[in-house]
Amino acid sequence: MKKLKGLGVSAGIAFGKAWIWKTSFLTIPGYMIDKSKVEEEIYRLNEAIIEAEKEIAELQENLRDTAGEEYAEIFSFHRFLLRDKFLREETEKIIRNENVSCENALRKVIQKIGKEFGKKGTDFLKDRRRDLLDVVEKIISNLRGTPSGKIKKFKNEIVVAEDLSPTQTLSLDKRYVRGFVTDIGSKTSHTAIIARALEIPAVVGVRIATKEIENGNDLIVDGTEGIIIINPTPSLIEKYKKKKEEEIKLKRKFNLLKKLPSITKDKERIILHANIEFPEEVTTVKKYGADGIGLFRTEYLYLNRKDLPSEEEQFLAYKSVLEKMEGKTVIIRTIDIGGDKFISHFPAPRELNPFLGWRGIRFCLERKDIFETQIKAILRAAYHGDLKVMFPMVSTVSEVIEAKKFIDEVKEILKKEGKEFNPDIEIGIMIEIPSAALLSEELSKHVDFFSIGSNDLIQYTLAVDRINEKIAHLYQPCHPSVLKLIKITIENAKKNGIWVGICGEMASIPEIACLLIGMGVDELSMAPIAIPAVKEKIRKVEKKKLTEIADKVFEFKSHNEVFNYLKRKLKQEGI
Length: 575
Ligand code: PEP
Ligand code: MG
Hints:
Layout: E1 2-5, E2 7-10, E3 13-21, H1 38-66, H2 69-72, H3 76-83, H4 85-98, H5 102-120, H6 123-143, E4 157-161, H7 166-171, E5 177-182, H8 190-198, E6 202-204, H9 209-212, E7 218-222, E8 227-230, H10 234-257, E9 271-276, H11 282-287, E10 292-297, H12 311-324, E11 329-333, H13 360-366, H14 368-381, E12 387-391, H15 397-417, E13 427-431, H16 434-438, H17 440-443, E14 449-452, H18 454-462, H19 480-495, E15 499-502, H20 510-519, E16 523-526, H21 531-540, H22 543-551, H23 559-572
Parallel strand pairs: 3-4, 4-5, 5-6, 9-10, 9-16, 10-11, 11-12, 12-13, 13-14, 14-15, 15-16
Antiparallel strand pairs: 1-8, 2-6, 3-7, 7-8
Helix pairs in contact: 1-3, 1-4, 1-6, 3-6, 4-5, 5-6, 12-14, 14-15, 20-21, 20-22
Bound molecules: phosphoenolpyruvate and magnesium ion.
């Protein structure tokens, strides 16, 4: 028995035998060809490209049916590469000039482009290189008459690979593939997104999976915890079987909950919103029955690319999210660049303390050119539905005044340009810096709503870097100081008649969600998958009871005391 740890990117437990998928097309032997055979070879290449295009179009179509248009979009760049003359012409040139086979020529193209991309080295180019490799692999497998993904008939196996391209992930037949494990990859890679859409448990970024796991090993994949167990003992198999049964039961229950409103026993409506990073996540948002989107982290539209998203591109992205949400609220947060997120090609200065640096609204107020494009797109999209906007990283009142004034200026520009927009868009701010919480009385006079960003509020209140594992034990959502700032914010919001929500991770912990409701928040926004468990608790309890519980919380002096108290009290209430 051996345990490996990675990043759980698609929840669920899977049992099966390991099947190592080697993507060895770069080592496929090429060969020299006779000059007289050059045209024949080029014909072979073109046929393989046409076939690859057909296959990818088919995969795209299937994905459109099973997961939706947003996921299918992932393959648009693949199809573009296959239709574009660049790949075809470069390969043809090498076949003609060097008298080599298609396989040889394609390998050379990849090497050449790899070097180019390597020199520039941005995430955008790395991703595009991955797409190109994916496409070339398809072509080569067609040249060899073994279309990729059809190489093997799966029988309840777990695919283990160094990396899986989106095409490979998709060509796995969901009926037979139990899960997958890769050495590299991240939560936001396209492959991870597809895995979640198809609901195949997946753990990525294991680094040593292909070294440690052998073909035929018995595996358990825990995509929720990011754990892989090789050749598990009978007692572990038993343990995970129980866990899987629990998950299945929970899934059924959550499915039923989806259609029920988020309302307490004494009929108080609590809005449950979802946090998203990519427009394609709307499918998941709807699946888990969110009332709307409480935080759309738009900076992801700016990452992994070589240029800035245009007004039109952003307008279409925001509008499509709004339309897919079918009349429900969507709250867009203006870009929160800085901290640990940077625009790939943007020469941001190196800072010693980036989380205390040129971030969020500070960046936007200085780079008004970038800000203007986004605000224009937001105002225009807001014409098509209930779209609200909020600013991140507000630390002073003057920032809010300046940002609002700027929105007014942008409205004038849009008017002159004759574009349709919503002049009455609701404007909110994130309360995620202690100074903003302490100034919330004044701030509430300038905005329509507050959304508490507890992820940052905790780090700034407790001086605990949110991404530093070494001090993770000090990162405490129920630390009385954090709760005090939240309380002040809620009270000041109510005093001035604006609503207040919370969109940090702590809102997704059911016990803490109950406390926050008791403290008076009107809206909770969280990862879509967390919604059912929170909704279940809300429906079982009276708001009145939660207020009573919350009123006593300041008697406790530490996170642990508060959390234990919450657990005890909620248990007494039978939830
Ligand atoms: C927060 O800080 O709580 C928040 C929701 O924003 P982010 O996690 O994107 O900083
Ligand atoms: Mg934040």
